[in-house]
Amino acid sequence: MPETPIPGQPQLQPTADHGVASTRVEQVMRDIRQRIEGRSLCAGKRLPSIRAQAEALGVARSTVVDAYARLVAEGVIESRPGSGFYVGRQLTPFSVAEVQPGMAPQSDPVWVTRQSLLADAASLKPGCGWLPETWMPEQDIRRALRTLSRRALAPLTGYGTPQGSPQLRQLLSHRLAERGVKAAPAQLMLTESGTQAVDLLCRFLLQPGDTVLVDDPCYFSFQAMLRAHRAEVVSVPYTPQGPDLVALAQCLAQHRPRLYLTNAALHNPTGASLSLEVAHQVLVLAAQHELTIIEDDVFADFEHHPAPRLAALDGLQRVVYVGSFSKTLSASVRVGHIATRADWISQLVDLKLATAFESGHFSAELLHTLLAGGTYQRHMNGLRARLADAMGLTIERLQRLGIQPWHRPQAGMFLWCRLPDGVDAADLSQRALLQHRMVLAPGNAFSLSQSAGSFMRFNAAQCLDPAIGRALGALLA
Amino acid sequence: MPETPIPGQPQLQPTADHGVASTRVEQVMRDIRQRIEGRSLCAGKRLPSIRAQAEALGVARSTVVDAYARLVAEGVIESRPGSGFYVGRQLTPFSVAEVQPGMAPQSDPVWVTRQSLLADAASLKPGCGWLPETWMPEQDIRRALRTLSRRALAPLTGYGTPQGSPQLRQLLSHRLAERGVKAAPAQLMLTESGTQAVDLLCRFLLQPGDTVLVDDPCYFSFQAMLRAHRAEVVSVPYTPQGPDLVALAQCLAQHRPRLYLTNAALHNPTGASLSLEVAHQVLVLAAQHELTIIEDDVFADFEHHPAPRLAALDGLQRVVYVGSFSKTLSASVRVGHIATRADWISQLVDLKLATAFESGHFSAELLHTLLAGGTYQRHMNGLRARLADAMGLTIERLQRLGIQPWHRPQAGMFLWCRLPDGVDAADLSQRALLQHRMVLAPGNAFSLSQSAGSFMRFNAAQCLDPAIGRALGALLA
């Protein structure tokens, strides 16, 4: 690689240990490129001076000089003599992947999802975020499809109403009331999916640069999504009763986040649920600090008995509620929903029309058919029992391998576990994929603070194949 | 309304003409509120001084003093004595509606969509952006649903692959080749819809504050969507052969937009298509000014003979291509697709996973069933002939009312027309809705420059009911 002299900068001698220096230069380059792709450095913005950058990254100034020179040669940044270095105008598409130098690729928030979706049927997926297809009500869906294919006024070709099927909203309103959330059909809006619902709410509630609070650990896609919204993300540790209240109070005072994005019941990845006391305190703190909360409740139907919902205590004043059936009914035919203040619905509908137009009209009808006929309720009764058995068995098998549950969830599929001493979750995940075609979910993919390197999320429903225990045993040996 | 004294500001006497002054105060307040909701004024940002604001809006300083005082009382802005007024930290959700004081609500880009979706079956919808449901292949979809309900490996419950069904991408790749766009299946990604595809690409390619070019007139949802991306939008006039090249060159030099969002064939709302010469010149200019282009080709299948595609000439280097079947097959079971450079696909897939997770797996299978069996091609042959007849008849009827086509489209459903002298399209649309439950599409909803006040978009397929001619005649009399 030729040395490119920088105008107005003293040209430095190559260092003796050229190999190491070159690696450091590439790390600095990678770091800057990622900040440009992630929009923390925008087009036309001035880069830190060479001295400031060297101090910030703990590298020699000559390393920064080399890195800047090469980025100038690539057209990524521009040198303006007498003024400094600026991000170039060349288009750099946005990237959600946020793997820092030195971070394991398995800690990239999108890694687990991508691997799980790409895994073929023969792959083992104990880290997967959804149920095996054989656990889903395929026959019920086949029957519902035939019913719809014959129904006179089935919504097969046209657009639906902007807010989404009134009948389905009516039915969802009743279901929400059962877990204490009072939302009239007029306070509900249907979306393409739970993910799209959260994304739409982030667009609605956030400005670029706003600070958002998440749990540590939290669902990894929250991190990737918030990055796409150019939010600053902070986190507080999650306990078996909910967020750590002392840390929460400190964080709210220090960072003044606008939004808290969380699962209140059957939290992903820990499987924990809010206690009533913590739920109340979270809302008291939220009121003190003008915090809006998105309560993503996509695992609600796995519960045997409903845990307290923030949305129920709060009456949907500062809590916005999100639900979906992708985890329990079908991930192919998806419908999400948002319950919120009545005066926000019209703006939310407009935002949906502008960015997604209408949402799954056919899916909504299919869901309504399954919910109204009682089919879904029967399916869920069976599913809950089956999951409880799987959870018991999985805990037993993992414990035999020295893998300890951090908490025993009251329901659901997720089990957050501590690995035996000295075992690194990212390393184990990488070896599992290469040696056993097995997709694991390493702790740091869920941890903003990267403090969960010895934790792993398991999906009890995906852990029943004895080959998983054998593979884990071999990897841990 | 009590007068609230502002600390550090002289308290002004109420003006004599209190009614008019109070209206002006409300206009200033509304203007500031909209800029906060639209994020052109961000939390914590300083507002213009009272003098500057008064000059900018052409109102008396006392009006601005009153408006600021009331906004302080509402908590929307904060007064910092000795420093000025600042946008408050209170959360103001984002709004895509962008009706300026004095602008007709019918010019709000979301108005036509909202009214069209809310209209019941009995309403007349000559301004609607889609075909009547009776023109869509309902029986074909019913049959396809029954086929899928019986197919052994139908994707009814699980997630699909991140990039979307390989079989469908293979088939789409062949179809694109027929109109000269060379895209291997690996260069295609499926999305929930064409709208979601464009939205995802905006996220991928834009930073907040980037300038984006659209046609004038253009599809109104582009304006609303770009607002949601916090883009600055500029426009160039559209001619029957494509964008005005002189205006385009000037605009590129002056505003340096990063992105051009357009329909190349059967442009919405004008029905015009790019000529080969203009297509070539657009790409030459784009290369000179490092412009990326999104070619939204959702009306492609209406064409009798394919017009030149920017993506075909350019080989998908700086043009990203978007397609969908929502306008021709079903708006209830939607699938969109993006064709782009191979090296952008993986980042786009990650962005889709982070913000929407997986896209309509079931819809993709249904679409594949209809495309692979030849059903769709048969449907489109009939549809094109039917639309050509409807277009001829509609032009004849409108001309009798003194409504003149700006251009005779070679195909498709849209007809862009000039109203008789002195008739205002927004006013006509408002009266049509109130007096005849008829949804029209007034020109300025499509025009960034608000220069299309005497134009109207008609949908030939929605214009066949003679009641429309009668209602228009009565309104114009």
Please give a structural write-up.
In chain A, helix 1 (18-37) packs across helix 3. Chain A has an eight-stranded mixed beta sheet with strand order 3-10-9-8-7-4-5-6, with helices on both faces. The first copy, chain A, has 477 residues and is α/β, with parallel strands linked by helices. Chain A is built from 16 helices and 14 strands. The interface between A and B is large, with 83 and 83 residues.
Topology:
Two copies of one chain form a homodimer.
Chain A: H1 18-37, H2 50-57, H3 61-74, E1 77-80, E2 84-87, H4 111-118, H5 138-150, H6 166-178, E3 188-191, H7 194-205, E4 211-216, H8 220-228, E5 232-239, E6 242-243, H9 245-255, E7 259-262, H10 276-288, E8 292-296, H11 310-314, E9 319-324, E10 336-339, H12 342-355, H13 361-372, H14 375-400, E11 404-405, E12 414-418, H15 425-436, E13 441-442, E14 455-459, H16 466-476
Parallel strand pairs in A: 4-5, 4-7, 7-8, 8-9
Antiparallel strand pairs in A: 1-2, 3-10, 5-6, 9-10, 11-12, 12-14, 13-14
Helix pairs in contact in A: 1-3, 2-3, 5-13, 7-12, 9-10, 15-16
